[in-house]
Design goal:
Layout: H1 2-6, H2 11-20, E1 23-27, E2 30-33, H3 42-50, E3 55-56, H4 58-64, E4 75-80, E5 93-98, H5 100-104, E6 107-112, E7 115-120, H6 122-131, H7 133-136, H8 138-150, H9 156-165, H10 169-179
Parallel strand pairs: 4-5
Antiparallel strand pairs: 1-2, 3-4, 6-7
Helix pairs in contact: 4-6, 6-9, 9-10
């Protein structure tokens, strides 16, 4: 809506386009042309548009990187500890609060359906899964490590540097030794 208004399209015109079926409402304040191809991850695109400072993390990031068999029931996002709690009616959010370097490390920008979405890198996501193992389950973190090992390009030193930042180096080390 704000981008349309910024381009000189009035609210009335946008609602007329909606009534005519030229645009469709994806979420509150988010519209797109109906003739465009479907969005690959519409939930992530909505979160990226509505909360540009949040970062997709843990199970949702694992699903994006295709390194889990889990189907997230909600979009897992990380926000700075002192920031306001994001809220959406749909998709449901699971908010994790990170502070300082742990929040700012390993962020990648990805384009999903024309929206810029911030998602943690795969190695940072693995460290975060061990950091939040009591909330998401240790089985999810171990499965992700096993699937990561099956990939051709692995970077254990990057995982360990993120583990150090997230203060889970001692927790992850035995698992990495056993799996690799």
């Amino acid at each position: 809506m704000s981008q349309a208004i910024g381009c000189g399209i009035s609210r009335c015109t946008l609602y007329d386009l909606l009534d005519q079926g030229i645009v469709e409402r994806v979420s509150r304040g988010i519209y797109r042309m109906t003739e465009l191809p479907p969005i690959s991850n519409p939930d992530l695109a909505i979160v990226g548009l509505r909360f540009p400072k949040a970062v997709i993390c843990t199970v949702s990031a694992l699903a994006y990187h295709e390194i889990t068999t889990q189907i997230p029931r909600s979009v897992h996002v990380a926000v700075l500890r002192e920031s306001r709690q994001p809220h959406l009616e749909y998709p449901p959010l699971r908010v994790h609060r990170f502070s300082g370097v742990a929040f700012h490390s390993g962020i990648e920008e990805h384009q999903i359906g024309g929206a810029s979405v911030r998602i943690y890198s795969l190695e940072k996501t693995l460290a975060d899964c061990f950091k939040l193992r009591n909330k998401i389950g240790i089985d999810v973190a171990l499965e992700a490590i096993r699937l990561y090992k099956a990939r051709k390009h692995t970077d254990i030193s990057a995982i360990m540097s993120y583990a150090k930042i997230c203060r889970v180096e001692n927790v992850m080390h035995p698992y990495l030794e056993a799996i690799f």
